[in-house]
Amino acid sequence: MESFFEFIVIFLLFIGFIFPLSTFIHELGHGLTALVLSKYPVEIRLGSSSKSFDWRIGRLTIKMQPFSGWIGFVQYRVTTGEDYKRDNNIILLNGPISSLVFSFLSYLLLRYINLPEIPYFIINAIMIASLVQFFITILPIKYPFIFGAYRNTPSDGYTILKLLKNK
Fold this sequence. Notes:
It is a single chain. This protein has one domain (2-165). 58% of the residues lie in helices and 11% in strands. The chain has 4 helices and 4 strands. The longest helix has 36 residues, at 2-37. The model has no long low-confidence stretch (mean pLDDT 92). Keywords: Membrane, Transmembrane, Transmembrane helix. The chain crosses the membrane at residues 7-25, 90-110, 122-141.
């Protein structure tokens, strides 16, 4: 019974904290870049439900659904013109880069700070989740049905590659 309870606690920790945090960092990478490169509002959404906690900071709106897992989206608009493709690619690339940097910072924390067992476990899980998110989003693929809310949508890498091919 104790191992079942541990499994439930770890599962809830991943769905309620680790996955949403790594997803938020990824989407924040897109969102902050979009704020810098455009004059339009930006929305970051964690979860697929319309029932969320909303925060607004200037042109940035953050909508968070509890236990959102790995589901996150960012909505932004880039001015059309000669810089459109460049700006869009930079915005798209900064999501995966943010995941990679977050994973690396987590690694440095684990490597150079002697942490108790539970914080070590949590930061290690964040490091792995962020690294997995980097690879899944940088690969140029359309997500298969097992990705749920993402099914049939292009990854960041796929969209970047498509923008680069279109002259």
